[in-house]
Amino acid sequence: MASCKAILCFILTYFLLQLSEINAKVPAIIVFGDSSVDSGNNNQISTILKSNFAPYGRDFIDGKPTGRFSNGRIPTDFISEAFGIKLTVPAYLDPMYNITDFATGVSFASAGTGYDNATSDVLSVLPLWKELEYYTEYQNKLREYLGHERANEILREALYLISIGTNDFLENYYLLPHRSSEFSVEDYQNFLAEIARNFITELYKLGARKISIAGLPPMGCLPLERTTRIFFRNNCVEKYNDVAKDFNDKLDGLVRTLNKELAAIRLLLSNPYDILLQIIQKPEFFGFQNVKTACCGTGYFEMSYLCDKMNPFTCSDANEYVFWDSFHPTEKTNSIIADHVFKSGLIQFL
């Protein structure tokens, strides 16, 4: 009996040591980007692009609408859990949280934003430079809370996740005339890639070393694009998908370059394109029944305030749907994407 207890004690001790090692290697998740990773920052700014009302969040913890553009958790929440940190990553502007909560993870993301400042102007959301400004403010708060040595260690060992870019094309370049008259598609891609380069370089100068930048999804397959481009008979708009693939190739080249140029950086491209396209092309394989329309509303064009509790068409089981609203995946889809991104790349940071 004593021997069994000793063995159990050893196993428990080993498990705890392993868990502490994981937490030591990635002590915090720090997030920048758009609605794919905004956990509620838009709630606190003057914009019409919000989701802090039902039925958003109906499958979240306690059924609470937090400002996440989904029925539940978003990819960064699942990634934080995968690293053994916490179940959700709070929004920096959310008054319910403070530096104690943010020490292990925080999101500066703002739904509707993009690399391009002109994109954030469309719906009056936080531009990317403002997210970086809030991050420097956060650094100061963290140093006051933990002391410079411990805070700097967390900032150096934290995993930085960047997910942004879809709005630059769908809500700016292809919707409004200014950028499309100024740039060819390829020139605009290069313009955005240069902003990405500068942003990552600034993060590096501020102490970040473990960084993942997400590529674009197959944006021509979003329900909104299928619906509004009726000429394509509700099929994916391959023109937009091709743009996404081309831009992802540019980001891949950028990642390779910066890994050579910036000493000790570990920069990774996390590409959701292929896994989401697989889900869209073979939804039944992943346990979905509907991919062309979304759960909320009629499933064709509703997002934000068009997807509210007064809408009588919202589906009863979001797990049957790939998309929650016309632009954003369901929690189930988010979990599959996050699992793929973690196992195919982010796991190297363990």
What does this entry show, briefly?
This protein is α/β, with parallel strands linked by helices and 350 residues long. The chain has helices at residues 2-25, 75-82, 99-102, 117-122, 128-146, 148-157, 166-173, 177-182, 185-205, 223-228, 238-261, 273-281, 331-344; strands at 29-33, 105-107, 159-163, 210-214, 266-270.
3D architecture notes:
With 350 residues, this protein is of the alpha/beta class. The chain has a domain at 27-222 and 236-272: Rossmann fold (3-Layer(aba) Sandwich), CATH 3.40.50. 45% of the residues lie in helices and 7% in strands. It is built from 13 helices and 5 strands. The protein has helices spanning 2-25, 75-82, 99-102, 117-122, 128-146, 148-157, 166-173, 177-182, 185-205, 223-228, 238-261, 273-281, 331-344, and strands at residues 29-33, 105-107, 159-163, 210-214, 266-270. Strands 2-1-3-4-5 form a 5-stranded parallel sheet, with helices on both faces. Helix 5 crosses helix 6. The chain is globular, with a radius of gyration of 20 Å. The model is unreliable at 1-24 (pLDDT under 50).
How is the secondary structure organized here?
Layout: H1 2-25, E1 29-33, H2 75-82, H3 99-102, E2 105-107, H4 117-122, H5 128-146, H6 148-157, E3 159-163, H7 166-173, H8 177-182, H9 185-205, E4 210-214, H10 223-228, H11 238-261, E5 266-270, H12 273-281, H13 331-344
Parallel strand pairs: 1-2, 1-3, 3-4, 4-5
Helix pairs in contact: 2-13, 5-6, 9-11
Keywords:
single chain, Rossmann fold, five-stranded parallel beta sheet, 13 helices, 7% strand, disordered N terminus
